[in-house]
Amino acid sequence: MTDHPSRPAIPSEPRQHGVPPRVRARITRYLLALLAFVLIAPLVPYAAAYLGAGNVPNPGAGLWNEVRQRAGPADANTQARGVESAVLINQVGERWRQFRSEMLVPVGAWLLLGTLGFLALFWILRGRIPLEGGRSGQLVPRFSVNQRVVHWFAAILFVFLAVTGLVLLYGRFVLIPILGPEGFSATAAACKEGHNLFGPIFPFAVLAMIVLFLRGNGFNQIDLKWFFRAGGLLKGHPASSGYYNGGQKSWFWMVVLFGIAISISGLILDFGVFGQGREVMALAHVVHGGVAVVFIAASLGHIYIGTVGMEGAFESMSHGYVDANWAREHHDLWLAEMEAAGMVGVEPNALEEVKRHDNIDFKGFGSPGTKAVQG
Amino acid sequence: MARMKFLCDTERCIECNGCVTACKNEHEVPWGINRRRVVTINDGEKGERSLSVACMHCSDAPCMAVCPVDCFFQTADGVVLHDKDICIGCGYCFYACPFGAPQFPTGGVFGSRGKMDKCTFCAGGPGEANSAEQVRKYGRNRLAEGKLPICAEMCATKALLAGDGDVVADIFRQRMAYRGAAGLGTGWGVAYDKGLRKASGLDGKAAGKED
Ligand code: HEM
Ligand code: SF4
Ligand code: SF4
Asked: Are A79 and B37 an interchain contact pair (Cβ–Cβ within 8 Å)?
């Protein structure tokens, strides 16, 4: 190194390992500039496009707006012949799916389970509402044969449609783990066929219910008081009522309104042969499913109070007569009317059968049929 | 694993319906079922465009999410298939699908539709590939034979692309780049409107001459 006097002495740095600091700094600067260029270069055409975008509309925008039908229905054509074949993007699908998966399924489940839980709690706290005064043995006619036949026709159909409908709504979560995919598919197919075949009879049941149960179902002042006293459900707080109380009237009008809504929407879903598109079907399904879960939840309360919840209530719909004491405790104003009309203490023939049946000793689970004949 | 995707280039589709015909022929699709269809917007007017559509084999498929009997499945290639032995023909997948892909053989009263049928990306369905049963129910399984969907294969202008999504996207990106920068180079205006071409600095580059 030192044997070259013509050259200035090279400082001792280069003997160190690596690049001298000045060179290193220059390399770093180059690298940074290169990096900046690499990062910015691709943006140039975009920036140019952005600056130019003010006076040059994207020629594709119009097309894609029409594809998405943002600017109203596109003037579209296709050789395919089917429902909405010329529609490129389904406008309702996502909202409908979100309603079904995020509203109908979870909210419906909470509503139904909540109602069941509430009824269970009520059963534990209040128990069966008894006939405080026991049975008088005096009978008051309440529902005619026609009314009872129509009621049970509607009720059986309702339960059938509710169960088959709920299988379609919740089976994927509840039944597939139990039955397996094949087993559930067969079940769901049967439920769908049953629901879709028997569903169209339901409007007739609703109509017959309206015709035969409309009388006496108008709301009045007494119902208001009845509601304020919580329908006399709490111990020691009886509430006066006529032929129907506020709760029964509410249930009747619910059956009318929900019955009509569920029938119309159901028929639209069931008869997709009039070329109705996805918008109509989705709307019908939202109404149908939404009404169905509320309707079913309300029916649970109705079924509870008509069977296990209240002593003496079921017989009004089974053989059509109630005990005078039951009428006094739950429909006092109506009993007064019946007394005035001399209709308390009648002896129906049908009841004889029931009484005899009631006397049968079921010990040993013998056939009630043979005993009844002997008795 | 590759994710299979379709892409239809509206600048190339000439509404010849070759893809539709190829599909019907390959899979012996019954009458009334359109696994693929060509839709034309502004038919016969300036700015007319055609698009060939079928099931898009969505990554997070709405039909799969909504099916009450859960009969859909996605293959390792991202193809959305369904099991006709499980389907109950409720039509919910048709209401949910963004593209109108699910089809039904009958449209009868009492909600009867028959088993749903849709584009399989030429990948058949459950069961043994190209067994007589699979072919009868779902059509030919070309993917199992190492081939891509027949519709794209038959497309005369190569408007319809099918295959690995990355490859398809690359091809399309190349075309776009050739047609002009940043989305300005597409459309009727660029191809035929001199004023617009000048304004976007594309004068002299004919949009249709990329190949
Ligand atoms: C006029 C009477 C009715 C008709 C025509 C009818 C028809 C339908 C139809 C066509 C569907 C679609 C299911 C499918 O096609 O697979 C459906 C679903 C359903 N229906 Fe009905 N229905 C009726 C009454 C009822 C009643 C009274 C209830 C409940 C008490 C009910 C509850 C349901 C439920 C929960 C679903 C399932 C919704 C879902 O899975 O998202 N339906 N009904
Ligand atoms: S049927 Fe429709 S929703 Fe389902 S994967 Fe195909 S395009 Fe997507
Ligand atoms: S029609 Fe079949 S595939 Fe479509 S949602 Fe209903 S059961 Fe599932």
From this structure: yes
Q: Which value, to the nearest 10 degrees, does the dihedral of the CA atoms of residues B125, B131, B137, B140 take?
A: 70
Using CA atoms, how far apart are residues B27 and B20, in angstroms rounded to an integer? 11
| pLDDT beyond 70 at A264 | yes
Cβ within 8 Å, pair A270-B110: yes
Give the predicted TM-score (pTM) of the model.
Answer: 0.82
Q: By alpha-carbon position, which residue is closest to atom 4 of ligand 3?
A: B93
A75 neighbourhood in chain B, CB within 8 Å: 41-43, 45
B84 alpha carbon to ligand 2 midpoint, in Å?
15
Q: How many CB atoms lie within 10 A of CB A44?
A: 11
Inter-chain residue contact A60 with B40, CB threshold 8 Å: no
pLDDT digits (tens, 9 = 90+) for B132-185: 999 999 999 999 999 999 999 999 999 999 999 999 999 998 887 777 644 455
- Determine the topology of domain B4-153 in CATH: Alpha-Beta Plaits (3.30.70)
CATH number among 1.20.950.20, 3.40.50.1820, 3.10.20.310, 3.40.50.360, domain A92-370: 1.20.950.20
CB B122 within 8 A of CB B141: yes
Instruction: Count chain A–chain B contacts defined by CB atoms under 8 A.
Output: 176
Distance from CA of B120 to the nearest CA of A (A): 18
Query: Which among A315, A132, A312, A333 is positioned nearest to A235, based on CA atoms?
Result: A132
% helix / strand / coil in chain A, to the nearest 5? 65, 5, 30
To the nearest whole Å, the CA of A168 is away from the closest chain B CA by 6
Question: For residue B203, how many other CB atoms are within 10 A of its CB?
Answer: 12
The tokens for B28 are: 């012996």
Q: How far is A165 from chain B (nearest CA, A)?
A: 11
Among A281, A289, A288, which residue's Cα sits nearest to residue A263?
A288
**Contact: A81, B32; criterion CB under 8 Å:** yes
Answer whether residue A61 shows pLDDT above 50.
yes
